[in-house]
Amino acid sequence: MKRSRSVLLATVTAVAAAGTATWFAGDASAAAACASAWSSTAVYVKDNSASQNGHNYTAKWWTQNESPATHSGQWDVWIDNGTCGGTTPTSSPTSSPTSSPTSSPTSSPTSSPTTSPTTQPTGTGSLPAHFLTGYWQNFVNGATPLKLAAVPSTYDLIAVSFADATSTPGAVSFTLDPGLSSAVGGYTDAQFKADIATMHSRGKKVIISVGGEKGSVSVSSDAAATAFANSVYSLIQTYGFDGVDIDLENGLNPTYMASALRSLRSKAGANLIITMAPQTIDMQSTGSSYFALALAIKDILTVVHTQYYNSGAMLGCDQMNAYSQGSENFLTALACIQTQNGLRPDQVALGLPASTSAAGGGYVAPSVVNAALDCLARGTNCGTFKPPATYPGIRGAMTWSINWDVTNGNNWANTIDPHLATLP
Fold this sequence. Notes:
The protein is an alpha/beta fold. It is built from nine helices and 18 strands.
């Protein structure tokens, strides 16, 4: 996300860092002992085993409520190890992820299976099945300055940008910008807190975003993880935020940030909303720190709003073609990297600039965003690229920023919000 009106476009032609992966089914003739029976309520992580309908299966990544019988194969979560006999268990599921996949697919399947949404994490509050997210600017940069309560009703989730680093490693703080306060005719902490309560009364959720283009928050030790969790929890208690957004554009440590977010959730409770806003390059490979973080907290992660802009050309999930930003193909071909590599469709959303003024490159008309959502959810209205599956649970869209959208006559939200209600 960008704090200033002048945005530098760094054009990147990406070559995926991920390796190739090939999965093999076991020898059916071996008739190995059956693992413990698969349970729809159990959590399984990479290399956990389960049996169903006389077959053994091994999980490739974190999963819950995804039946091995219908979710096995090269492009799905379970490896079919072949027929089994007996009842001796080989391994049991654990309660939290211990490792994540490190490879990306190298080719698309020939058929187009449908991936249905599965059990969602509890940290979704009362967010709709498909929802619209926007960033509210706590600074002035040429976009229309707004008090929080003036945010249009089209937005379901509002990310307040930004919390900033303090002198304590990992800790963050939030202060209303004096320039914003002056621009809107005065704005106090008490008024801001009241506006959050007003948004809640309208059925909206408000989270605090950490970082941004100029953010320097670093969580790279146990002490920093503790400081992060404690300071964000303090902001939640002080202002009434519903959760936190991780928008660290200058790198992150997935191990310590995962620890910090789990600690925060233990403090704030199961309804804590956790979102992420990685840059496009950050979600090209499961080996990247952002993708690794998303997989490590998949059980408590609400949604990833990848920034599909300011990124140049990138490889899609077919790992064969580079797609140019500012096109429907770019959105659909990159979104399926996440859905094909461990994230549930309901944890994936499309992040776009609200206008040409909001980013240096990558703007598409909101009608193109709608077409991309149709393509991902239904397999219709696609461009020349068609994803290897359909994802009815695709979560929605995000924009940088609400302020730029208002400046542009609310065209972005007014076009996309009603369309979200038509998705399956």
